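Need tokens for this chain, all 198 residues.
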Amino acid sequence: MLAQKYKLKLCLPIFLSALASGISAQTAAIKTNLLDDVALNVNAGVEVGVAPQWTIDVPASFNAWTLSHDRRWKHWYIQPGSRYWFCDRFAGHFVGMHAHGGQYNIGGIDGKINLLGTDFRKLKDSRYQGWFVGGGISYGYAWIINRHWNIEGEIGVGYSYTRYDRFRCAGCGKKIAANQPHNYVGLTKATVNIVYIF
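Here are the structure tokens for all 198 residues:
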């Protein structure tokens, strides 16, 4: 119930403003990311055409669950961006730019990798709580199923700046570091979207 409330707050203003601007056929879409769904994240996106080969895409995701064994994967983020379509919008190849921002509370998860200066293995024994901002670039492709339905894949890389507090364990409140900065470079977007086009 709480997750639906936040999802509605994140997506409703974007969708209503798009409707108010007089959307016609094949100029707007709503979507959900199946990869986020598998990770138990409530998510939705809105995409609006602004020129024959340009769209504005605004996906958002939310997770408020505490998993078994007191593991945390709580977060919310929004990732607005623009896309340039090589043929027609909502079909075929595209490239994009995106910004992103949000908050997180993550811990007790065995990351098992150390990549480009970010040690995901530290998530196993500690909890990190903070915020992030950043941006990146992406490439994707949309497969047309019929007039209203697409499947879309997108992969993006970029940068995130974060500030966090570190806690001794996933479920405890003993803070061992406060307001620490971190710079992340790597994967910033991975989607397999089911898209409904108006």
